[in-house]
Structures
1.
Amino acid sequence: SNNSQRVVAFDNDNRITEFRVDGRHNFQVTSDSKYIIFFNIKINNSKIPPIIDLTKFCSTNEKGNVTLVFRDNKLRVSKELLAIHSSIFASMLFGDSVEKDKEDVEIKDVDYEDFIDLLQFIYPCLLDISDRSVLFLLKLAYQFKMESVLNKSEKYLIQSEGIDVVKKLLFADQYELASLKDYCLNIYPRKCLLQKVKSSPEFTSFSAKMVAEIEPVKSSSKPNIDVTKFCSHGMGNIILVFGDNKLLVSKEYLAVHSPVFAAMFYSDFAEKKKEEVEISDVIYEEFLDILQLIYPQSLEIT
């Protein structure tokens, strides 16, 4: 029947415990009541990971090894290897912690396969960082304070084109990656970046401190400016109008520094004979900064 709906469910021994199909699949029932299912499978990645020789993580000196327990999995590893790369393991295995003299040490809230990949990464030429692996490498390296892994992961994230800038910023926030944070804050205008962060699903995961750093830099209060220094000592002055603000300036000085003003004041433009000239779409305070910049010793570039 096209209305039947069944699923396939397996127990821990890979035995089928439930079977279900729906009308989207073609199926038929044979004489011995077995289902034959025809469906399409899309293979996203056909690369099969190699079988890992776990003995390479052990020390040749058996006394220098410890067994790490990840729920149902155990892993024999070298104490020295872990201690060299992780200050957490150095303290745990060689400090005054209770784990120091234990044969088996339980590692909670860590995925067994992810930890094996982490070990492969700290062994030379065994694992490359990828967009997939960098996520758990960061998490574990931060948890166990593996500075070399953190640094390499941070460098990878900076050059990666496959990870969105919002996620990069979140990683920088969660794992205290200063260089990655500075990179993200510099490649995007702050307003655009803040909008992307606030509209993303990850927004609630950002710290208040990071959100404050993403906020556009507000201009500091400027000292009072003596606008009379922009006038001509002779008759060559004109009033520029910026909305509700007016500014008396020297025609000659503007013309020397700007071909646009030179044409406006000394060519056949309508503004040539006007006493007041409206300057549209220009902010008054920003134009003052421009004038201070072209007047000697008035303003430094920042």
2.
Amino acid sequence: MLAMKKDSDNFRESSIIDIIRLLKKNGRNVFIHEPLIKDKKSIFGCPIINNFDLFIKKTKLVVTNRASKKLNKVSNKVYTRDIFGEN
């Protein structure tokens, strides 16, 4: 999820964008799961996968601004700044 705050659609200034750029610069494939983006197939040159289960299957690591309950089942591959699961 790209947005800094829960239920926000403002991700233009999100710190995760810098991480995406660094990962791509180092040759990593980056997939984005952002349910709030419905009108695009990609952003920042990265494919958007809105199906959560497919997204999880395709990824080795999940980097997210906010931890959500649906990530609990794959917590072993989640990296987040949201250590309390609040925002």
3.
Amino acid sequence: MASRWKSNSSMSSSTLEEDNIATEQDPLLSIQNRLENRHNAVNSACGSSYRQDDLNTSRKTRCATIVSHLRHFKQKHREFLAEFIGTMILILLTCGISAEETLQIGPNKSWLTSSLGSGLAVLVAVCVSGHVSGAHINPAVTITFCLFSGFPVRKVPTYLAAQFMGAFAGAALLYTIIEPAITQFDHGQRHILGELGTAGIFGTYPPLYVGIASAAASEIIGTALLLLVIMTSGHPNNLPFRTAQGIMISVGVMTICLGLGYTSGFSLNPARDLGPRLFTAVAGWGFEVFSVHHFYAFVPMLAPIFGAALGGLIYTIFID
């Protein structure tokens, strides 16, 4: 075995010596070997570069695909998204103003602040979603437009779902912002009514001395007036007001709230009450929010729909 290993070693040594001799004798062979080594190194570097380029291209393709899907989703559901966002903004701002009034201690509480703030909140929501969906942001408006203005029936479920979901989301978003202030105010014990009652930040609750019939009448008449303002300001022949319809609706909401809102808490919008009220039911106030004050929750849920239909009927018969 040892002799065989020695013979192999001697053969390898002789081979290397022959290669070295050949290289020394032929300089061109040395240059060719160097060029081949350099070519192999370049190919290796290019291969890694190509792999990196392929990886970057793959990432760009995935990003482009995601963006394309998002654009397709937006185009397909743009009216739903506009109503959802518009209603969410409306509830976030309206209930935020109510929170300021409820959690404020002292003589500075003012019905004027709530009324003006609610009107401005409507204006902001209309500006955000009006050019896409028409900014109904109110199930009563959608149903009335369907009955009297030719709004497609097939779109009604989409609009209503967006409005109620947006209202719930707006209430939830506001709660995440002001939860510490609510806890500081009621010491962590959620009350619906009374001096420490905070459910009124989200839902509408009339004074206990106001009867159901009186509050319902206030909601019906107020929403009828609101629809008269909306439909009149949007009439093609009413050009001066049509160009500023959002402002006219905002002023209408302010005026209606100042004149009639104190009796019922001025919902004028089923989504404005039901979405936040449902949120309070699951966020710690309990489902008693639906039964308090002789099940008053059904008044802001139904009365605005009847009131809006009445306003649409009056407009169609006497004004249009």
4.
Amino acid sequence: MFSADFPTANSYAPNAIITLLGDMKGAEGKYPTIVNNTKGEEVFIATSYRWGEYLGSINLLFDKDGKITGYHGAPIHLTNQTAQDQALQAKIDEWRVPFEAFAAEVIGSTSAALDQTKCKTGDCLLGQVMADAMYEYRANQTEGDKKPDFAFHNSGSVRATIDEGDITRGEVLTSFPFGNAMVELTFSGADLPKVFEGLVSANNQFNGKEVSSLFQVSSAVRVEHNPANEVGKRLVKVTIGGEDLDDAREYRLVTLDFLAGGGDNILEKQSGFAVLDLQEDVLNQYIKAHSPMSPTLQERVVKTDGQASNNSNSTSGGSGDQGSGSSIVAVPVWTALVAGLMFVLAL
């Protein structure tokens, strides 16, 4: 079963819970898996696979005191041979109508497929377009020295290629389904190389733990790294706008609230940041503004055989403080709900 369930089951007091049901990637082992709570009583964990591919099914027998005395069951694999509940399917078809209309709305076009398939191995076109959209979004809201220096996001946030031709809202939501929001953070020029070192070494240089995603950067950034070097010494050079990092200045970066909260262990958990607009809305605006689009893949994160030249040895963490003029903006919750409901109704 999924390992995350075990501490939950172990921590419950007696009579609080006897069965945990779940639907998660990574489920394996006996069905059900039986563990003990704080008083040594049995708790049944029945977790099937993600996205409704398996339907958990278990029957429990209880005595007069509510204790389980027997059980039987197994996950049911749902395939195209599994009969649908026609009444429920009719309701789902009805519910889907407004969401399908929303998803079908054309917001722009591209002459090149916005590829996602290479995002987890290096630069990818859709990842670069998203990073550029993030930068432009914040740059349009600020002036002078309040403008951001660059934008970046985790490659794991990019989930699907957007094909050549018309681009719909549904395609954008499929590619960026998580409802992440924009944030602006500030890092010193002394600390920023440690962030990039963590990314190219897959090891956070502030806490020493694994970084679990690659990254995509906006067009002003060039990152050179040598994978042959030892972990912690792989970053060779970073330039922003063609200039080396300046230890003495502060850099404003646009990223995702997921990363600011410590997601993928790319950044130490930040605080005090403003939550701005949703990732998919930012990309929608960018596509509308630049259509018809003709983007090309650029070399932004580059492998080299060089050695470190501007990788700071600073050990202090970055700051989550925002520039003056930043303000908390209400996130359009309806957009996130649409994304979630479209996902559920697609099952």
